[in-house]
Amino acid sequence: MSVSASTIACVTQPPPGPPLTDVEEYAAAVLDVVRRIPSGRAMTYGLIAEIVGEELGRGGPRQVGSVLAGSGSRYAHLVPDDGGAGGEGTDGTGAPPSDGDRVPWWRVVNAAGSPPQHHLTEALDALRAEGCPLTKDGRRVHLRRAVWFPEDDEPSHHA
User: pLDDT tens digit string along 132-155?
Assistant: First the structure.
């Protein structure tokens, strides 16, 4: 997969403040991609890792999962307070489905389309509420129909 320069530039813009450590730089890039996933769409840990890794040269799907696991606490300072979480939440107020989080973690699934097992019900409920295409059994995201690529938002791809 080839990622455009404008996508990478958007991914790697650091938040304002003191310089970031390498770990924080990677986390900020992951969180930026995840926050841009539109409501009703999804990405895999591996796809996010590939996009971020193309610019930063490090990380993988497990590192993306680690960042998301710490997005509500350890990396909260890397998420802008702009209220944006890539779309509306599941409660009609625009809030994500859990703990005031500003990162739509439920839109990130494994390569088989499964949300995190320890948050399976909450994630599937949020995905259903957003109208995300699920498999017939309703337990996984139908990735062929739901996967989102950052390039989908670039004007050159809509012409």
Answer: 999 999 999 999 999 999 987 766
